[in-house]
Amino acid sequence: MHQKNDSKINIWKEFANKTNGIFKDGYSWQSDSVVIIYKNWKIIFDNYTLWSGKYSTEMTRIIVPINSNNDFRFEIYKEGLIRKIEKLFGAQDIQIGSEDFDKAFIIKSNNELKIKSLLRNTVIRSLFLEIKDVNIQISDHKGIWEQKLPENQFELSFYFDGKTADLQKLDQILELFKIILNELHQMSII
């Protein structure tokens, strides 16, 4: 008997069971996924293959479709060597006044006041520092890398390299998303 040995199926099924999420079997080029309903939002966890010519990279991504009449956008990602070089040559990022956080992450936004207000939440900052491998944004593109979304439709998106088997990291990201969604709602952004 041939048994399918694919960790993404196991991790997504486990995560769905642990979070009372909905497990969805992948098909064709789409991976298995988990949908978690939180208040009025659908938080979607899956894997995505990002193609660049003949090369591909596996990503884990988390997406929440959101509606907003507010054009607030942000992107927060881990500082790396390339980003440090960009800074040397004048690339600007927003500083929030938290030394550990400002050293660890690049923050970009079209509204400095709103992003600082969002990041005033110490639990959000703590979760970012615990997760470490952070790439989060409000995007106007479906699935981060796909087609442009209709007007007033956005996605709160998070991704990191590779597939994960780390349930604790997925739990932390889920908690982060819940808190950010609550904050954005309280700020009348979504």
Low-confidence stretches: 1-9
The total strand number stands at 8
Overall structural domain count: 1
Shape annotation? globular
Order of helices and strands: HEEEEEHHEHHEEH
As laid out across the biggest beta sheet, the strand order is 1-2-3-4-8-7-5-6
Radius of gyration: 17 Å
Q: Portion of residues in helices?
A: 25-40%
| Ends distance | 50 Å
Strand content: 25-35%
State the helix count: 6
Q: Tell me about the biggest sheet?
A: 8 strands, antiparallel
Query: Structural class of the secondary structure composition?
Result: alpha+beta
Mean pLDDT: 87
Protein described:
With 190 residues, this protein is α+β, with helices and mostly antiparallel strands. The protein has one domain. The chain is built from six helices and eight strands. Strands 1-2-3-4-8-7-5-6 form an eight-stranded antiparallel beta sheet. A hairpin with a 2-residue loop joins strand 2 and strand 3. The termini are far apart.
Task: Fill in the keyword field for this structure.
34% helix; alpha+beta; 190 residues; 6 helices; single chain; eight-stranded antiparallel beta sheet; 8 strands
Write the layout of secondary structure elements.
Layout: H1 7-19, E1 22-24, E2 33-38, E3 41-52, E4 55-67, E5 74-78, H2 81-88, H3 99-104, E6 105-109, H4 112-118, H5 122-131, E7 135-139, E8 153-161, H6 167-186
Antiparallel strand pairs: 1-2, 2-3, 3-4, 4-8, 5-6, 5-7, 7-8
Helix pairs in contact: 5-6
